[in-house]
Design brief:
CATH topology of the largest domain: MetI-like fold
Number of domains: 2
CATH architecture of the largest domain: Orthogonal Bundle
Largest sheet: 2 strands, parallel
CATH superfamily of the largest domain: MetI-like
CATH class of the largest domain: Mainly Alpha
Structural class: mainly alpha
Helix content: over 70%
Number of helices: 25
Strand content: under 5%
Shape: globular
Order of helices and strands: HHHHEHHHHHHHHHEHHHHHHHHHHHH
Length: 554
């Protein structure tokens, strides 16, 4: 007999209550988002054939070493370029600064693998650079001169940093703008020069923002497949493709995927720990913004060149190379395969964007509505999909989904005598699911922030007037947050268009999107055939950059 005077713990009382549809739905969405990560861990712990000792003795050290070198090299270079450019455009006035302030964001519109194809085409033996050098100097062959190797680890770091530095630049620029100009004025009055003000004042104050940007850069480097595969750099991500697709060992691929997950989670933890004890407070309610100091003469033009160089390498060069190939033979734009790839991209990306935003809205609203502890604890965990590389998610989705798909087809065949085939893995459904899991954090963050800006009195008034929970969501929240919902839809769609590793792993036979078509044609050294699809991907990416520029205007 239970003592009625004994107080039941709040969390246990919450579990005993009958679950409402909103909390149950939120937990179901969370379970679907976390399913691929859990599947990878289960596969790694229970492989059909344990090749872990063989991996440790042979290829894993090389995969891990190359991955760490790429991460550190790309993060350091992107951090230096992004933080330096942010310091210049915020602190100084020089020729073209107002244009460069926004042009420095444009490399985000170009997937790193597109930049890699363009760089190789520009610098290879038959490219314009080496051809011009041979004509100018009278050289006859490659033996007559020394040219650095193009497809190398160093070139991969350069390409990745040129594509990803805007993450650091954007966060560092925001951090510098939020600081009071009084700090720099005091430093200048005490005799600190430009470098001393940057090193002793600007850098410490923006260190959390720079660290967060570098963490994103390093996570994107781990996720990359197109660049490292094209430059023949063996990393943990390429190892998943090699072990799974070439040797057929899903358990070994899952074990490599767990190493990637551990690496990514270590990056996230390191970034949080690095700013755990950092506290930055404004000393007054009204702070004076940083006033740009003029740079005249050669110093101003040097600052222009310093900011223009990353923009030229990260945006102008790849766009120019790809555009030149695209207009060389206009008939490539009318290739039926290009139209089919465009349709596949619009269909999968559009479906994934709508499903992701709908699921995020339902989950965030359900968690806010229910007040239960467990959904609130699970909500932040669902963002892990954005940190997990696409190759890891592809592996975690394909194996359990293929098993379910085969059993479903067998069940329908036994009941009806009709063989439906593979309805999930044999279609684009698996790709859409991967996109939803991968980019759920974007939609969830947008929905949570937008709903947080709605005054609590409005939904309370709607409920008092007899509106149901669903009616309140439709009548109150959605009209007020439709701008944020539209932005989330577009951002998720853009990321789906550019996603390569998960699409390569999960696409049905002979099913191409714009990203896979670019990769497929460029891997065969057909840059001309890949150029129209690459330009379409870039055009879509520019829409996301425009949103970022508008959100960070000021």
């Amino acid at each position: 007999m239970t003592d009625q005077n004994t107080q039941t713990p709040r969390w246990l009382a919450g579990l005993r209550r009958r679950p409402d549809p909103w909390s149950a739905g939120a937990m179901a969405i969370a379970a679907l988002v976390l399913l691929p990560i859990v599947a990878v861990m289960v596969l790694a712990l229970h492989p059909a054939e344990n090749i872990w000792p063989h991996l440790i003795a042979t290829t894993l050290p090389r995969y891990f070493g190359n991955t760490v070198i790429l991460m550190v090299g790309t993060g350091a270079l992107a951090g230096a370029v992004g933080a330096g450019a942010a310091w210049l455009v915020v602190m100084y006035r020089f020729p073209g600064v107002r244009w460069l302030e926004w042009l420095l964001l444009l490399p985000l519109a170009i997937p790193a693998y597109v930049s890699a194809y363009a760089l190789v085409d520009f610098l290879e033996y038959a490219g314009p650079v080496q051809t011009g050098l041979r004509a100018l100097m009278g050289w006859q062959s490659a033996q007559d001169y020394l040219f650095p190797p193009i497809r190398s680890r160093g070139a991969a770091i350069l390409v990745l940093a040129a594509s990803l530095y805007p993450y650091v630049y954007l966060m560092a620029r925001t951090g510098l703008r939020e600081q009071s100009g009084c700090s720099y004025e005091v430093a200048r009055a005490l005799g600190a020069g430009p470098f001393a003000r940057f090193w002793r004042v600007g850098l410490p104050l923006t260190r959390p923002a720079i660290a967060a940007g570098m963490a994103i850069v390093m996570m994107e480097t781990v996720n990359d497949f197109g660049v490292v595969e094209y430059f023949s750099v063996q990393t943990l991500t390429t190892g998943i493709f090699t072990v799974w697709l070439e040797t057929g060992n899903a358990g070994g691929a899952a074990q490599i995927a767990c190493v990637i997950l551990a690496l990514v989670l270590s990056l996230v933890a390191l970034e949080k720990v690095s700013r755990r004890n950092s506290r930055f407070h404004r000393l007054s309610r009204h702070t004076r913004r940083v006033e740009r100091m003029p740079l005249a003469g050669w110093r101003g033009w040097l600052a222009t060149a310093a900011c223009g160089l990353p923009f030229a390498v990260g945006f102008v060069l790849p766009v120019a190379v790809i555009t030149a190939h695209a207009i060389e033979k206009p008939e490539r734009w009318f290739d039926p395969d290009l139209g089919l790839a465009l349709w596949h991209t619009l269909a999968t990306g559009g479906a994934a964007a709508v499903l992701t935003v709908m699921a995020a809205l339902f989950m965030v609203y359900g968690v806010r509505l229910t007040g239960r502890a467990l959904p609130r604890l699970v909500l932040p965990v669902t963002t892990i999909g954005y940190a997990a590389p696409g190759a890891v998610l592809g592996l975690g989705i394909m194996i359990p989904l293929a098993a379910f798909d085969n059993r479903l087809a067998d069940g329908i065949l036994a009941l009806t005598g009709f063989d439906p085939g593979l309805m999930l893995t044999g279609t684009a459904s698996a790709i859409v699911f991967a996109y939803v899991v991968r980019f759920f954090a974007i939609a969830q963050g947008a929905a949570d922030a937008a709903m947080g800006r709605v005054s609590p009195s409005l939904p309370m008034a709607a409920r008092a007037l007899g509106q149901t929970a669903g009616g309140t969501l439709r009548a109150v929240y959605l009209p007020l947050i439709r701008g944020s919902v539209g932005t989330a839809l577009l951002l998720v769609f853009v990321d789906c268009v550019k996603e390569l590793p998960a699409t390569l792993l999960l696409r049905p036979f002979n099913y191409n999107t714009l990203a896979t078509r670019v990769h497929e044609q460029a891997s065969l050294e057909r840059i001309g055939e890949a150029s129209p699809a690459a330009l379409l991907v870039i055009a879509v990416g520019l829409a996301a950059v425009a949103i970022l520029a508008r959100a960070n205007r000021g």
